[in-house]
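INTERNAL AUDIT FORM
Audit reference: QA-55
Scope: verify that the stored structure record matches its stored sequence.
Auditor: D.O.
Record contents follow.
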Amino acid sequence: MKKPILIFAILAITIFSSACRNVGIPKETSVDVSKAEWAIVIHGGAGTIKREFMTAEKDSLYRAKLAEALSVGSEILKNGGTSMDAVEQTIHVMEESPLFNAGKGAVFNERGQNEMDAAIMNGETHAAGAVVNVHTIKSPISAARAVMEKSAHVMLTGEGAEIFAEKQGLEIVTPEYFFDQARWESFQKAKDKIDKHGTVGCVALDKKGNISAGTSTGGMTMKMYGRVGDVPVIGAGTYADNATCGISATGHGEYFIRNVVAYDVAALMKYKGMSLENAANEVIINKLKPIGGSGGIIGLDAEGNTIMTFNSEGMFRGTVSSNTKMVIGIYEDEK
């Protein structure tokens, strides 16, 4: 008699489990510990960054500044602040450091001028703002946010952007503020060889599940006067969408514009169901690298998974989240 009873019991359990699935009752009620409450990822530019070109002192300076930037952003997120505030304040740290090609450390164009671009995007509303070819705005990323929040437009350029920023109460400085001796010496050398580009960027996820992305740059050393790279082009160098991911790019901007890199990653996730990591590899490694598009991207998705993907010899980068420790990297062999 025991055997029929056992068979009946197994059959009953099978039927019950099937019923649970059909009415949507979960088999387990445990919390998904892999999902981060908040997360942040940054970059400080990609390019020919090798250990042999970096002194121990310079290496330490970069790592310390990246850690400082991450600490500022993560503190905002820990305390329930918005991803938008975290992105803006994190980028401020890098814009105010001559180590990076943005703000204070912006490189010089062919006329010997600092000419800066920035963009920011809200993944919840898809609102975006950008400023292009500005010379006197101390924090281009804040100007980009002002365009997004306090105008009916997405992008303002040159003097118009500067007049708007001043009306919004943003700090305006003389062009001399951006002068950095090391950048000037690089400019002099670059008259014979152009090989300098870089950017700073940040993507953040806050406790409400909102993603924001921002990017700020001085462009390329010796760039043509008036040249615009990918940074302020929404979908090329900067993009955010709560449903997929947030992306900030750095590299040879013309390639990133032509391939709509930031949006391409999000599109692969949305329409092909790829993970953030696989989509990033597809675009940066399989698509850009073969055609000479040097650079990289940082990004994160709604679960707080982050990527720092690049095809160059290095990228200044870092990330931290509610369930992961801070990680800082510079060189290609640091994983």
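Auditor finding: record pair retrieved intact. The domain at 39-331 is CATH 3.60.20.30 (Glutamine Phosphoribosylpyrophosphate, subunit 1, domain 1).
Action required: none
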